[in-house]
Write a structure and sequence with these properties.
Cytidine Deaminase, domain 2; six-stranded mixed sheet; 14 helices; globular
Length: 391
């Protein structure tokens, strides 16, 4: 039944009691269908729902997000997966709907970070999506509705403890939002500026053209940043985020983090990785760890021995040259930044990861150096004039 208040087990940590979620007017915009959501669950759920709702509205495609600690590990649209992407996302054995495809992409973008995620779906959860959720380690899901069979499946997860929320698709919050820090109330207008293709009209590089697929990916990256803890940089390709660099104090560290994650997404599709022979019965999460360590050339002898036990046949690592050759196949990656680039170092790092399209607010005293770097690498860069800090 709708209510204006929900008592929580505790706040951010078990010792922070009492805790509750409430609205001052009307009813809560969501209903708990299963489980007992916590404070951080709701922070993830409400941020993630806004992200997928906006992605779907901006693109006309189903959208999904995988959230961890109030930032997206991945966000994606329901763009058809290639056979290689299906294997990389661990869904090669499933029939997928559009919304299931969106979640497979969102989860697969950064499977290490998505472990224990909160899921958001822009469309009703169907059986195909529930099948993916049922077998992954996840904390909960928020969606505008659930097919009866899908809800039945999710209610059985974790012996009935899996958290399932139904959100009112039509709910709109007040224009002014408030929060408290140290007993002090801060107030501001909600960040509700529209993010559309028009935002990328001010192209400041010699190269100007942004094809439709790249425009879609710039939308994915930029909308994702609106709900990512700042500082943040996001890479996107083929309708999904490929790397999110969140919560760093330095812009270039955001870029390095996002670029490394994006590289790993593409490397997961290398034929050697797709043909890895894991040890019989190795859990999915440990397979993710083994793939991640496959690209770590600095394991200690003890770590190497433990890693080798993950495989029925121990694979030979890719050489740096083999990795570089594979990554060179992927170009036209979109990059968006939630604030301006103070130096060209982020552009220099981004070009090594196939970036061809860049969106950033502009406004740095070094804008001309950054533009010159993009021109050197034949990138298109748009100045949006829109900062998207999120805290």
């Amino acid at each position: 039944m709708p209510s204006n208040e929900l008592m929580l087990r505790y706040g951010m940590n078990p010792h922070q009691k009492p805790a509750r979620v409430y609205v001052e007017q009307g009813d809560l915009p969501f209903e708990v269908l299963s489980g007992n959501p916590g404070y951080i669950n709701l922070l993830d759920a409400l941020n993630a729902w806004q992200l997928v709702r906006e992605l779907a509205q901006a693109t006309g495609l189903p959208a999904a997000a995988s959230f961890k600690h109030v930032s997206p590990a991945g966000a994606a649209l329901g763009v058809e997966l290639s056979p290689e992407e299906r294997v990389a996302c661990f869904v090669e054995d499933l029939e997928l709907s559009s919304i299931a495809t969106a979640y497979a992409r969102a989860r697969g973008a950064d499977r290490m970070s998505s472990f224990g995620d909160w899921i958001a779906l822009s469309e009703p959860c169907d059986v195909a999506t529930a099948r993916i959720i049922r077998r992954e380690v996840s904390d909960g899901v928020i969606a505008p509705d659930y097919e009866p069979r899908a809800l039945e499946m999710l209610r059985k997860k974790r012996d009935g403890g899996y958290r399932v929320l139904r959100i009112d698709r039509d709910y709109e919050p007040a224009e002014i939002e408030r929060r408290q820090v140290f007993g002090v109330t801060l107030e501001q207008r909600r960040n509700d500026v529209a993010i559309t293709p028009d935002l990328f009209a001010n192209r400041v590089t010699a190269r100007q053209e942004i094809p439709a697929d790249a425009m879609r990916d710039l939308l994915v990256a930029t909308i994702t940043l609106r709900y990512t803890q700042s500082n943040s940089v996001c890479f996107a390709y083929n309708g999904q985020t490929t790397g999110v660099g969140a919560g760093q104090q330095s812009r270039v560290h955001c870029t390095r983090l996002a670029a490394n994650k994006s590289d790993l997404w593409f490397l997961r599709q290398h034929p050697v990785v797709l043909s890895l022979q894991f040890a019989e019965g190795l859990p999915r999460a440990q397979r993710n760890n083994a793939i991640d360590l496959f690209f770590n050339d600095e394991l200690t002898p003890a770590e190497q021995v433990a890693w080798e036990k993950s495989f029925a046949v121990v694979p030979e690592r890719l050489t740096p040259e083999a990795k570089a050759d594979w990554l060179a196949r992927f170009g036209g990656v979109a990059l968006s930044s939630d604030a301006f680039f103070p130096f060209r170092d982020s552009i220099d790092r981004a070009q090594r990861s196939g970036v061809g399209y860049v969106a950033q607010p502009g406004g740095s005293v070094n804008d001309q150096d950054v533009i010159a770097a993009c021109n050197e690498y034949d990138m298109v860069m748009a100045f949006t004039g829109l900062r998207l800090f999120h805290h």
